[in-house]
Amino acid sequence: MTNIISRVFGVFAAIRFPKKIQTFINKTYIKLFKIDMSEFKEAEYYESLGKLFTRNLVKKREFEKSENLLISPCDALITELGTIDTNALRALQIKGFSYSINSLLGAYTLKKDKERLQDGLFVNFYLSPSDYHHYHAPCDMRVLKATHISGALYPVNLKWLCKKAELFSENERVVLECETTSKSHFWLIFVGALNVGKIRFLFDENIATNAKKNRNYYCSYDNLNLFQGEEMGFFEMGSTIVFLGEKKMFKSLVKRGEKVKFTQEIIAVKK
Fold first, then answer.
1. Residue 2: its pLDDT value, please?
2. Active site residue 113
3. Which of 134, 136, 148, 185 is an active site residue?
4. Torsion-angle region of residue 232: left (phi > 0), alpha (psi -120 to 50) or beta?
5. What is the maximum span of the chain, computed from C-alpha positions, in angstroms?
6. To the nearest 10°, the Cα dihedral for 3, 197, 244, 156?
7. How would residue 211 be classed by pLDDT, with cut points 50, 70 and 90?
8. Residue 82, SS3?
9. Active site residue 136
10. Is the distance from CB of 7 to CB of 23 less than 8 angstroms?
11. 75 labelled catalytic
12. Distances from the Cα of 159 to the Cαs of 9, 33, 123, 162, 270, in angstroms?
């Protein structure tokens, strides 16, 4: 049912109303969610609500590149972070609720690769409806594999995180297995959410989330290299990204409850 609701909302978000009506809708949405539009074009520019959701930055954000520091892939709230439990291979969804790393990554991730994450680092990024919805490479990296896992589309806001166990593992998601230039492995999991639920990737248009016919998709890449800060894709509504880093290779520079911005240094790569 959540998938159907999301597709219906997606149809509405794609409608291009007459300019005056569309501007009113856009301004109402901006006011309702208290969106800071200082880095974006004016409300009148966007031809549909969907275009407003996926707005681009007007000016490129500058940052100093570093092989030893990962930047935030998005604008988000850090809802939880910490060390992955060694024995149960679990991480916190929110205080009091955890999720299974095995279930989250799915069957296409090899057992030996999952074991890399024992005592590793996890960071949960929540993108609210007011946030910039694009995501970027946190470092110079190579994407090794992509897995699309179909599922439900429950909301991923704090209210739902506190009442729905294993939410991340039940929702539709895309799992990217990646490595740094120093061969440290990490995973980025893009979790779908209620309303629209589309997760887009510029490097692979075959990843089709929230489709009428749900299907899992798996692909390995030979030479898919991305530079730090390079755009990877975007959500068509707010959602969640989970970072999982292998044991003793990554150290968090942020805290739970902290609001972060794309280009902000958030994780140190240990030598």
1. 45
2. no
3. 136
4. alpha
5. 58
6. -70
7. low
8. strand
9. yes
10. no
11. yes
12. 21, 17, 18, 5, 35
Distance CA 261, CA 74 (A): 6
Which of the following is catalytic: 72, 169, 184, 239?
239
- Strand 97-100 and strand 185-191: the pairing is unpaired
DSSP of 174-222:
EEEEEEETT--EEEEEEE--SSS--EEETT-TT---S-SS---EEEEEE
Residue 26, judged by CB atoms within 10 A of its CB (0-12, 13-18, 19+), counts as buried
Q: Residues 72, 75, 128, 204: which is the catalytic one?
A: 75
Strands (E), the chain: 69-71, 76-83, 90-94, 97-100, 121-126, 134-136, 141-149, 173-180, 185-191, 199-201, 217-226, 231-235, 240-245, 250-252, 259-260, 265-269
pLDDT one-digit tens code per residue, 25-43: 999 999 999 999 999 999 9
> CA 190, CA 154: separation in Å to the nearest integer?
14
Predicted structure pTM score: 0.89
- Distance (Å, rounded) from C-alpha 234 to C-alpha 135? 6
- Contacts of 76 by beta carbon, 8 Å cutoff, 6+ apart: 125, 126, 127, 128, 131, 241, 259, 260
- CA nearest 178: which of 61, 79, 267, 87? 267
Rounded Cα–Cα distance for residues 82 and 146 (Å): 24
- Decide: helix, strand or coil at residue 137: coil
By percentage, how much of the chain surpasses pLDDT 70?
Answer: 87
Beta-bridge mates of residue 94: 97
Domain boundaries, the chain: 2-53, 69-269
Kindly report, residue by residue over 64-82, the tens digit of the pLDDT: 998 899 999 999 999 999 9
Q: What letters, b where the CB count within 10 A reaches 16 and e where it falls short, cover 248-257?
A: ebbebebebe
